[in-house]
Amino acid sequence: MNKNIINTIDEKKKDVVLSNDLVEAKYRLSALEQKVIHLLLAQIDLSDDDLKYYCLNVSDFLKIFNNNNYVRDIKRVLDELLVTKIEIQSSNAILKTTWFASAQYFEGGKIEIEFSRKLKPYLIGLKKSFTKYNLNYIIEFKSGYSIRMYQLLKQYQKIGVREIELLVLKKYLQIEKQYERYSHFKEKVINVAYDEINKNADISFTFEEIKKSRKVDRIRFYITSNKHMEFEDVPKDKKEQQIREELDIDDLIDQLREIISEKLKTKEYKAILEAANNNIELVQAKYQIAKKQRKIDNLVGWMVKAIQEEYSEPIEKRKVTSFNNIGAREYDYNELERALLGH
Known about the structure:
There is one protein chain. By secondary structure, the chain is α+β, with helices and mostly antiparallel strands. It is 43% helix and 19% strand. It has helices spanning 20-23, 31-41, 58-65, 68-81, 135-140, 144-154, 166-173, 182-200, 236-259, 266-275, 280-290, 299-309, 333-341, and strands at 5-6, 15-19, 53-57, 85-89, 94-98, 100-106, 110-115, 130-134, 161-165, 203-212, 215-225. A four-stranded mixed β-sheet has the order 1-3-7-6. The chain has a three-stranded antiparallel β-sheet with strand order 9-11-10, with helices on both faces. A two-stranded antiparallel sheet has the order 2-8. The protein is elongated and about 70 Å long.
């Protein structure tokens, strides 16, 4: 038996581990194309000596994805992955390659797939500067943009904040020439990712638009854990406690609906509560400050930061005229990145 060939998909393998350089690579793929890649990525062990050949049947995709349309399109998807370019920038070089080096189709629905050898340093033997997440979240997303946004935000989960220039974000997604109007980009990319990630993933986020010359120049994402969506084995004696905690959260959200006049989504209420450690009085105090502001473009983002930064008075009194120019403590992003990501 050839140890370099994986003949069956291990459905228990759900963890995907990627180098951060690969997370930040530039490529554009459909949701299905990314799901196929992730199914195979989850089969890779960090301790492997080399990338292996994956020999599987079309029926394996049906077991994982539970969608006949996916199985019908699988050959087309693999053909596309053989030619779609991926650009990876490291500290001293730019690599341009494809995800797969080859895909061989056999009678009876058997397929043998080989990852590009150039991807080996980004998938095997990683000891630092990597991002880990669960395949189950990827399977739930319908938008390819949501999958890429999830990766980019998951990378910074421990930091809790990620600020990305709009142009850089569009380069990650390979859509520099699309959605020239920010309103269209926000509708088709950011808002879609917001709905899908906050509903289906182990993280949730809010965001703040940073303007330059009246145009959105950067986006600051506030990333929090979505604990009730985490995949883990829960001891039976703790399940009842979790149910009680969920009921308590629902009660707190009902209270927030009475306090905050603006209509928010459930995930947004939860983001505010998590920032305040479920302290309703604290949230109410910061909301009273918010009501004295002249303009807040993103109430949830403002509330989260107001709680984190312990605002005690309207921002205007600090000689700052808008939310996008808050003069509170600045995050040292470079230092945070080095501490977390090992750069």
